[in-house]
UniProtKB/TrEMBL annotation, chain A:
Keywords: Antibiotic resistance, ATP-binding, Nucleotide-binding, Transport. This is ABC-2 type transport system ATP-binding protein. GO terms for molecular function: ATP binding; ATP hydrolysis activity. It is a peripheral membrane protein. PANTHER family: ABC TRANSPORTER ATP-BINDING PROTEIN (PTHR42711), ABC TRANSPORTER ATP-BINDING PROTEIN NATA (PTHR42711:SF5). It comes from Kutzneria buriramensis. Pfam families: ABC_tran. It is found in: Cell membrane. GO terms for biological process: response to antibiotic.
TrEMBL record, chain B:
It comes from Kutzneria buriramensis. This is Transport permease protein. Residues 27-250 form the ABC transmembrane type-2 domain. Its main location: membrane. It holds the Pfam family ABC2_membrane. Belongs to the ABC-2 integral membrane protein family.
Length: 277, 257
């Protein structure tokens, strides 16, 4: 569904993308993670058709993005709503721009409003909504036309748990219906919830790609032993041996033992550190 | 027959949706238009006796001078309608939608163009009915002049909105710009009564050509309308081209202050 190959983009002296390649299949949720300035938003803008790459190609459903905008739904990083317009008017505007007519549009609005917990706010102006309600409205405008490719750029930044869960549920549902999803975030637990494959971006390119299981394989977990005197911890790929060593070293009475498997935060940190070095 | 059963071309539906929601945005923020209608009406009534004593075309100057001045102030309605798209980050969302550039520009420009025409039309009717301006000899010529002046204001306002770096810049550019354009253009002191050095400066103000065109159109002077109309059209085209380029290509990494 999405195929980006060797994209580059330079703004003055800043190399925003430096050989960025990513492929996302229909029905797949790809979690795009990386530090600030890694090139995630530039990549999303390029797939949206807002930016042209200096070199490289990006195809959505086999054609360049600017030729297939109706197939793409975008929820940008920053809130981009018309404050004097109501939630319903936003959904109607973006629905009409995407080719939805009256009956289909009305039905999509009702369904989305329920899924995104916006039913009670449809007639409220965007400027009067809470931050979470604005987030949900923005995401709903991206989903209204059931796009084949969904670009969600940090859709839950600053969102409350209710908003986050509503968003994640709808994204999972749309992927289940066959949409390809690119989901950028700093909240790695969300990607676990979405059962997303992961692409780690750093310095303008993807430096690791795979399922979370593949990427976590071989990463050290952590063993923690807390005694009455002290707390001992060790990063390890062999928790049993590490636990025995810590117990031998520890002084005082053992109060608790904790074994933690590697998670996406560990992966992110290890890749980011190795890329910097 | 509903719109769903009609085979309306998709571009028209999209442009129609943009026009509808941009009109709604204007209707929900009417304070600028109201003030730019009421203030010139008051000034027309106040200045009419003065202009009538000083000029043979005093009542026409009282109406068209204030109309020109406050229509230039109304340029800020155009500028503001485009600037909020930058401020609210909504323009890129529209650019990423299925709507073509032409549809976006028509959807944005048409509602504010109509607002500018409504303002001019209301002030002309008020000038005729209350201030004593003679009834225009050719309504077609006057409508043409109003459209050309509206087009020039649309271009200038749109260009301003796309090049300023902050809302403060926009306020200054619109307010000070409107005062300069209109006063140098003869809205307050008619050009004929200005000293010779000031008359030379008036050639650099679009307001001079706007006022001359509108006054000639009210008097039914076809020849006197055409020449300034061409200059106003040129101003609108140049400014509109700059604005269109900026709107079509986005702002890249140049963010608002």
């Amino acid at each position: 569904m999405l195929e980006a190959v060797d994209l580059t983009k330079k703004y003055d002296e800043v190399q925003a993308l430096a050989g960025f390649s990513l492929t996302v299949a229909a029905g797949e949720i790809c979690g795009l993670v990386g530090h600030n300035g890694a090139g995630k938003t530039t990549f999303v803008d390029m797939v949206s058709g807002l930016l042209r790459p200096d070199t490289g190609t990006v195809l959505v459903d086999g054609v360049p993005p600017h030729e297939t905008r109706g197939a793409i739904g975008i929820s940008p990083q920053h809130i981009a709503l018309y404050r004097p317009l109501t939630v319903r008017e936003h959904l109607e505007l973006y629905g009409r721009l995407s080719g939805l007519r009256r009956k289909a549009l009305k039905s999509e609005i009702e369904e989305l409003a329920t899924a995104m917990q916006l039913t009670g706010f449809l007639e409220r102006r965007a400027g009067l909504l809470s931050g979470g309600q604005q987030r949900r409205t923005q995401a709903a405008t991206a989903l209204i036309h059931r796009p084949k490719l969904l670009l969600m750029d940090e859709p839950t930044a600053g969102a409350d748990p209710e908003t986050r869960q509503a968003l994640l549920d709808v994204v999972k549902q749309r992927a289940g219906e066959g949409a390809a999803v690119v989901y950028t975030t700093h909240y790695l637990t969300e990607l676990a919830d979405l059962k997303a494959s992961i692409a780690v971006a750093s310095h303008g390119k993807v430096i690791a790609r795979g399922s979370s299981a593949e990427l976590l394989d071989g990463l050290p977990g952590e063993v923690r032993v807390r005694t009455t005197d002290h707390e001992y911890h060790r990063a390890t790929t062999d928790p049993t041996a590490a636990l025995l060593e810590l117990l031998a070293e520890s002084r005082g009475t053992v109060e608790s033992v904790e074994l933690r498997n590697p998670d996406l935060d560990d992966l992110y940190r290890s890749l980011a550190v190795s890329d910097v070095h | 027959m509903s719109i769903d059963t009609l085979r309306v071309p998709e571009p028209l539906i999209r442009a129609g949706a943009l026009i509808k929601y941009n009109s709604l945005l204007r209707l929900r923020d009417p304070s600028q238009l109201i003030s730019y209608l009421v203030a010139p009406m008051v000034f027309m009534v106040m200045f009419q006796p003065l202009y009538t004593k000083a000029l043979s075309y005093g009542s026409i100057q009282a109406v068209t001078g204030q109309l020109m001045m406050f229509s230039v102030f109304a340029m800020s309605i155009v500028a503001n309608s485009i600037f909020v798209e930058r401020e609210w980050l909504t323009w890129d969302r529209l650019r990423a939608s299925r709507a073509a550039r032409a549809e976006l520009l028509i959807g944005k420009a048409l509602p504010v163009f109509v607002v500018l025409l409504i303002q001019q039309a209301v002030l002309i009717v008020f000038g005729w009915a209350v201030v004593g301006m003679p009834f225009p000899k050719s309504l077609w010529l006057l409508t043409f002049a109003m459209c050309v002046w509206g087009f020039a204001l649309l271009g200038m306002g749109a260009m301003l909105a796309t090049i300023v770096r902050s809302r403060g810049d926009l306020f200054v550019a619109c307010d000070v710009g409107a005062l300069l354009i209109s006063s140098i253009g003869g809205a307050i002191l008619p050009v004929d009564l200005m000293p010779s050095w000031a008359q030379a400066v008036t050639k650099f103000s679009p307001g001079t050509y706007g006022l001359s065109m509108l006054r000639s159109a009210v008097q039914g002077d076809f020849a006197g309308t055409w020449q300034p109309a061409l200059i106003c059209l040129a101003i609108g085209l140049v400014c509109g081209t700059v604005a269109t380029f900026r709107l079509a290509h986005g702002w890249g990494r140049s963010h608002l202050v």
